[in-house]
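note to self — DONT lose this again. spent like an hour looking for the file last time. sequence + predicted structure for the chain T wanted, 467 res
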Amino acid sequence: MTKDLTVGSPMRLIFGFTMPTLFGMLFQQLYNLVDTMIVGKLLGAGALAAVGSTGSINFFVIGFCMGVCNGFAIPVAQRMGAREPSKMRRYVANAAYLAAALALVLTVATGLLCRTILTVMRTPLDIFDNAYAYIFIIFMGIPAIILYNLLAGIIRSLGDSKTPVYFLALSSFLNIVLDFTLILWFRAGVAGAAIATVVSQGISGVACLFYMRKKYPILRMTREERRLDGHSCKVLCAMGIPMGLQYSITAIGSIVLQSAVNALGSTYVAAVAAGVKLFQLLACPYDAMGAAMATYCGQNVGACKLDRLGQGVRSCALMGLIYAIAGFAAMAAFAPQCAMLFLNPREPNLALLVELTSRYIIISCAFFFPLALVNIVRFSIQGMGFSTFAILAGVMEMAARVVVGQFFVPAFGYTAACFASPAAWVCADLFLVPACAACIKRLRKLYPSRPDEPQAVPVPASVGAGQ
């Protein structure tokens, strides 16, 4: 059930690991898209704008949860590469304790602050109630989101990128059924879409848990391995919290930008909401490449096969460039048709909505390769154990979006908002690319590569692995 990424062609291994992960992320985006399509076509542009107006704050909180869970999986991958199963199981157990505490704190905090946050973000009054109903339910589902993402991250760290796909497929199917049931039959509105998302992901997480307990003998723990361990928690937090903060710091810029777009009116909010959903689907390959590189680099650092790090980054970047060219060509030709997936043909301002959505997606796709480098390089650095660099990259992205949102959107309007994310990716790359080279150089200086003795040189806690 597990896979060793420390032996064989980096290109072949990364591609083979990426594809199942990609299908899983496509399933995950599928039920996000279904929410948006059903809300937009059945409930109208106002409801679509309400859901879209919560996107940045959703990313701020849920992105933090996902980043922390992915960070918790890095020490697991490193100990897997170092062939130390007992230490690996100890990390898994303590990651579960930390994740449970995080879920409790975030659920309570976001529930209490939800209305205040939407007010500060200048959410338009005509969509405020729907926006609150949607995001409040999503926040109440944080435990389900953390459960699935933690388990999926652990499974991927063991080298198995296929199993999470099966449970996301189940989740996607359930989400579609619940969407139609709650919105069409029970008239639950945008709240129904939120409930469908939370319930389907919760069921997926629980099913994943039972499957892991049955099918992964390597995760069967002794009482000593299940014990709460301060050192393990310290290493996990050193990896997980910076990765979570990276998402949240990036999201701060998105919140500022979303506030600027909200001030333009609900039509522009709806166009951005549709454009973002379509773009998230198109960007799934880059998310999958990032997940693959985190595991690949984690295992190879654990095995001290440092020569393979640069080879893997270059191979994955080539894959990203090929997809960037193909993706932009497709959207340049078919963006208006894709925009109609999210819009009601009877909307009175349909032509304007299609044009605005198409403009957003074409501009974003023109900068696909900078986005590819952001995901590939950032997750590679995190897999190597230098998770604090992720925060600095997030600061670069945040600064770019804040500048665009505060100064350029008020001055130049909607088109400036379309360039906000591309500007953020370029700024992040200016930091990440040289940082990646510096990380590999530091590892080489600290620990010479010993491909013939992969266990001879353990990676210390100072670069994220722990002992």
